[in-house]
Design goal:
The structure is a homodimer. Chain A contains six helices and five strands. The longest helix of chain A is centred in the N-terminal third of the chain and has 19 residues. In chain A, 27% of the residues are buried. Chain B binds a DNA duplex through helix 2 and helix 4.
Chain lengths: 165, 165
DNA sequence: GTCAGTGCAAACTTTTTGCAACTAC
DNA sequence: GTAGTTGCAAAAAGTTTGCACTGAC
């Protein structure tokens, strides 16, 4: 069995356990949605997910999508990002693999942070009485392009009005 | 001048700079909202903020609140949390003071993480070409109470149906 | 004086809910 | 067979927008 299939099975098992423990039913819709979500590499919105389901010849209503995504968040298989875009952005969770993002609050550009410092930093926290599933970090600030533009504008204003801002 | 007033002045200055740089006007509403937000210690929703403004004898319309909170997020003075509750949850930002939260996805209990490991861990990441304003981390998982309940339920089901889940 | 900001109400979008048909258990 | 799930349409909630008035610059 390939690595990918093994992971898929593990995820399905996790969801099955969750459904059983909460006395919820194992419907084809729920597993089809789970599978579709894990086929999406990056971020996605509810609308996009519905398109994917359509493409996969497994159309589902948006009420089902809303309910199922909520279940998956509860089951620690899905995350909803605080990107404050027009619509909520979701992303699959890979167990115990910390994820970090750098967000420019000016141009709203989001960059994934790679490299060990951040993921090691996140793993440094080991709670004694809490079973950790996944860790996510967001670093907010200003990207170099926006930084330069803002400085230029401020300087221009200071010169124009002969003031110190 | 007290520490608190100094901080307040610094925050107002930051907002003023932001408004100037973006050629936006310095209205009383904007500064009153900023002040109200920084008077709230924990999380808040738009509705709650509107109540606060009412109490402070500075009623503002919700359209103004939506517009101003968006500006404050852009100005790196406010953050919107990904708690997936009924309504979006906001919180003021304290510059360069990392914040972390532990979230039980089962009972939705949110706990602030205190202690050095996490904040030091977050500070370990120092991007070379990005001006960091603030860092936030979320640790998702299951709290001890929910953990125990889930285990109990799973065991009961396994016994009942003589299966291994 | 000009033009951006505010408040109101209406419009719009997103999400939830009630109900009949269906299906996992 | 029973009770949870789905899909549809309607309702509710959250957010944005158009417009007249106000006030920052």
């Amino acid at each position: 069995m390939s690595e990918k299939n093994g992971l898929q099975k593990e995820i399905e098992r996790k969801f099955r356990r969750f459904l059983l423990a909460n006395e919820l039913r194992q419907t084809p819709e729920r597993f089809a949605i789970l599978k579709a979500i894990y086929s999406i590499e990056g971020y996605f919105t509810i609308d996009f997910l519905q398109d994917i389901m359509q493409e996969r010849r497994f159309p589902v209503s948006s009420s089902t999508l809303y309910k199922t995504t909520r279940l998956l968040v509860q089951a620690n298989l899905l995350i909803q990002h605080p990107f404050n875009l027009a619509t909520p952005v979701f992303e699959r969770i890979e167990y115990n693999k910390p994820k970090s993002y750098q967000i420019c609050n000016n141009c709203h550009k989001i960059t994934r942070i790679v490299g060990k410092e951040m993921s090691d930093g996140l793993k440094a926290y080991r709670p004694r009485f809490f079973s950790v599933n996944h860790r996510v970090a967001y670093v907010y600030g200003t990207c170099p392009i926006c930084q330069r533009e803002m400085n230029k504008k401020i300087k221009k204003l200071e010169k124009q009005n002969n003031i110190k801002i």
